[in-house]
């Protein structure tokens, strides 16, 4: 959101979008996302400056190698704001005012709220481009940061009518340099999308996991991969999610209301499962879920269905690595993997997703090598 008459020296032209950042990048906020961006950029040789309101957090991120401390005369070409949602707008404004030549982006999971707040304050936001990497981990902080966190993940970039091509290419270069795939959306499109794919799943997972808190111990001993899959993201920071959900409340409420209606329809059907139409209502709810899963992009963004086989793996060091190695020798590519430990047994179950054409060869080849196949989940 600056003058468009010339391309910034921060970008080396190898194609506008694919250009690589060559100037200094300043990262404000050294939690998981900020520090991970620092690690990924430094791995590409980019000069990274780290800033955090917590000196201890900043020093920790520096010690781990995510960047260096600020120095007199630093002139960043790009500033990445990676702070909690409730202070994102404040920090963006401060960085725009402090560094009048830099482009500023942020990685907050809500995009419309900071844009509206800055606009309402009368801040000149021509050099601000909101963005959001769709990546994360259950654990936070600089200690959990990883350089490969963004590889293959979508990175939404929110441009508007005042966004210059030069500034847009700089933010997209950031995404490309850390291994992500830039995707342009408006702030409204982004917030509606993450409400469905991220924010509501968090609420649903947390509510379901909450039912486990008072469950009998005997019931918990029966927990398998299904309940683990559906509650995995429930181990999240309540303080952060209160901010995220509050900032994106309207689209989240709309989806939750629709989901509540769906749940009511199924529960009403199950109150009288022998009533006319009850079984059909339940079957159609499950079938509609099948349709939704079919639309989820798989590996490399492809809507593909894979076949799965379940392999019994002894709970001893090196067994999983041996399994992967022998699948490689068989020419079988692992598209996805889930691990489940059998309660009270000294082995685990590895559910491996493969291309349908490779399923028979994988089963026969592993069996010949002494592996025990517990089943084919698509039988």
UniProtKB/TrEMBL annotation:
Residues 308-379 form the ACT domain. InterPro entries: 6-PGluconate_DH-like_C_sf (IPR008927), ACT-like_dom_sf (IPR045865), ACT_dom (IPR002912), NAD(P)-bd_dom_sf (IPR036291), PDH_C (IPR046825), PDH_N (IPR046826), Preph/Arog_dehydrog (IPR050812), Prephen_DH (IPR003099). It comes from the Bacteria. Residues 23-300 form the Prephenate/arogenate dehydrogenase domain. Its EC number is 1.3.1.12. One of its GO terms (molecular function) is prephenate dehydrogenase (NADP+) activity. It catalyses: prephenate + NAD(+) = 3-(4-hydroxyphenyl)pyruvate + CO2 + NADH. This is Prephenate dehydrogenase. It comes from Microbacterium hydrocarbonoxydans.
